[in-house]
Amino acid sequence: VPGKRTSAPQSQPLVTQNEVVIAPSASVVAMLRREAAGRARPSKAVAVLADPVFDSHDARISVRSQISEVRFAGAATHGNGQLPRDVQRSWGDVDASGVPWRLPRLLFSRREADTIIRQMKSEDSFEAVDFQASRATAIGPDLAQYRVVHFATHAMSDSRTPALSGIVLSLVDSRGKPEDGFLRLWDIYNLHLPVDLVVLSGCQTALGRDIKGEGLVGLTRGFMYAGATRIMASLWAVDDAATAEFMAHFYQAMLKENLRPAAALRRAQLYMRDQERWRGDPYYWAAFQLQGEWK
């Protein structure tokens, strides 16, 4: 009506009306489809690696090794020397604060893992926590039996030097003795992981570096190369408690209601957005995105 002032319509997030999936490129999606069409689907449902042990002073270590310890206050050590140089350099690239290496335990990742596993039959799922959430478990052949592989731990997505990216798993054994727990990007490229979905429930796991002729190189590209049809990863440093609740609803929608991953992601995002505790800030519900095949 001429002369009548009207308020502009309030904008709404794209996810309110749409499922959102990021396709690296049309050729990558075509490749993922060809690979998925030519293989048998894994027989089991979900494998979860969560709540690893980073510190020899962790209360889960019942017997302290008197020979060597991993120290995270001040200079970090690994056995009698420094932690692996690539891990230290990656931490320096990712964390510009200058604070010495220290990885806090992600207490809510244990609740996240337990909630996922409780929705499944025991013979259809696998939960690796504490010391079992190790690099050896991650590179072993058993994970290829599962349709979904879920990592709930710290990750380092190094946009300056993508080769230094990786996932941090248990850095000590049950006696507090140091072990290599860094699943490096080249480890991921060498995995055989022909699964439907990899979930990287950590901070900034969807990031990478845009390299001319290669595209975005990072953790998600590595898991696609390893055979995963889809990867769900985060764009920023996520809140531990919010992520645990988000993942509970994502898996409820996907495993119990049989929604496709893209639809389950949207369902979880809308649920979190409607909760009073998280409603005011997309930081709590919009971090995760799905990359790869959208069907």
Describe this structure in words.
With 295 residues, the chain is an alpha/beta fold. It has 8 helices and 14 strands. The chain has helices spanning 26-37, 85-94, 107-118, 135-139, 185-189, 219-226, 240-256, 261-274, and strands at residues 21-22, 44-50, 77-78, 81-82, 125-129, 146-152, 155-156, 166-168, 182-184, 197-200, 208-211, 215-218, 230-234, 288-292. It has a 7-stranded mixed beta sheet, with helices on both faces. A hairpin with a 3-residue loop joins β11 and β12 (215-218). α7 (240-256) packs across α8 (261-274). Residues 63-82 and 206-217 have low confidence and may be disordered.
Oligomer: single chain
How far is it from the N-terminal to the C-terminal residue, by CA?
Answer: 44 Å
Question: Could you give the order of the helices and strands?
Answer: EHEEEHHEHEEEEHEEEHEHHE
Protein structure class: alpha/beta
Compute the average pLDDT.
Answer: 81
Estimate the global geometry from the Cα principal axes: globular
Total DSSP helices: 8
